[in-house]
């Protein structure tokens, strides 16, 4: 990915709901020193889940200027955990030859000063991130160890039958496990996931040809999910395409973020063999086309 600009992934017109959603999410990064588990209220987790965020986007190579935007998206994912999202953001930026960020396309020929100022602000907003981290190769990193500890402890509590196999896969030296990160602002449609996943797959293949460690045996994902009081026991996915990933995964576990009965926010861990990635992408592409 030599160029900082990549393929256009969505064309439409920005709505008022999109502005509200963007402002609410950006509020998370106002305090850089705040812990990720204190940055989001229980209600705000799904407050904008039903809003439609329509905006013209393109995929770009992650740059240093995207640090805060990427970090904010990771804060949303790791809400109420001790995972060092700043450390994870640094890893993503250090390996920007794989993955992409989704950013708004702006017109270069707009001469209006006010519009120019708005364009600059929109251009700096990271609407999504799609990348992968080799958590086998980078097991010495703080955030990777914290991620593994999180998955281990939560799986033991929420899905003890799955825990043994999950731990074996995560900690075996014979495996190469990629932590697949697919996060975006609330309201962006599932359609944006398909070109981003395809682009990531090409990036991994290119990196493998250069003898880099992106030839994975398994992929691990952490999905933002939630439950509904009206339908107890049913798990809903903030990124709807991730439900298809879960259905095709080899192992999964869902846990609540807190012990509060009124807190409906959950996280779902999915783990699947790398040879399923093509089928998963195809399944998502088929689903979003209907």
Salient structural properties:
single chain; 290 residues; alpha+beta; 9 helices; 38% helix; disordered N terminus; Protein BCCIP homolog; BCP1_family
Set out the fold topology.
Blueprint: E1 5-10, H1 16-26, E2 57-60, H2 67-77, H3 85-94, E3 100-104, H4 113-124, E4 128-134, H5 142-158, H6 160-171, E5 177-184, H7 193-209, E6 218-228, E7 231-237, H8 241-248, E8 251-256, E9 265-273, H9 277-289
Parallel strand pairs: 5-6
Antiparallel strand pairs: 1-2, 2-3, 3-4, 4-5, 6-7, 6-9, 8-9
Helix pairs in contact: 2-3, 5-6, 8-9
What proportion strand? 15-25%
How far from one another are the termini? 31 Å
The topology string of helices and strands comes to EHEHHEHEHHEHEEHEEH
**What overall geometry do the principal axes of the alpha carbons give?**
globular
Number of strands: 9
For the largest beta-sheet, the strand count, sense and barrel status come to: 9 strands, mixed
Number of helices: 9
